[in-house]
UniProtKB/TrEMBL annotation:
Record bears the keyword Transferase: yes
A Gene Ontology molecular function term of the record: transferase activity
InterPro entries: MobA-like_NTP_Trfase, Nucleotide-diphossugar_trans
Keyword S-adenosyl-L-methionine (UniProt): no
Entries under SUPFAM superfamilies matching the protein: Nucleotide-diphospho-sugar transferases
MobA-like NTP transferase domain sequence ranges: 5-155
Name the UniProt record assigns to this protein: NTP transferase domain-containing protein
Keywords: Transferase
Amino acid sequence: MDVTVVVLCGGRSSRFGSDKTRAPFRGSTVLDHLLADLPPDWPVVAVGEQRRTVRDAAWTRESPLFAGPLAAVEAALPLIGTASFALVAGDMPYAGRAVSELVATLDRNPTVEAVAAADPAGRRQPLLAAYRTDAVRVALPSPTANAPMRRLLDALVVTELALPAAVTADVDEPADLAALDEER
């Protein structure tokens, strides 16, 4: 597939108390667990502080730092040379299992510009989604710093894909990490 994976791993992790993507998880880190589950032949762009990971990635940073996910998407766009990209929050250790299905759903629906995961409660997860790159380049709001992701989604034709709770779960606090560690 003609797709890149963009992984967001540059947040403050204020509720967690330290960088949650570096937190130990199942013999590696939260971020490495996610990266290991991604399709092996898809290029990865990581937006955050560059570090050693289990997988090669092109690294970039949003400007200004900690300006939110839309600014991170804007920073990643120059590094994306594929027709579509999967966007994944780096604090979702099991999300790698879903990116192929999200991208396949996008490919099957030519009039759709994005496919966002929906958790079991029906909440749309824009940080676990597949996007058409050219559509995002056109629809990306300006300025992106500290703007909500819904501004981008509101400008695109979006459908949802229902996914299990463990796949859509993220780590905000240490208790979240403990609960995910019990998932199989």
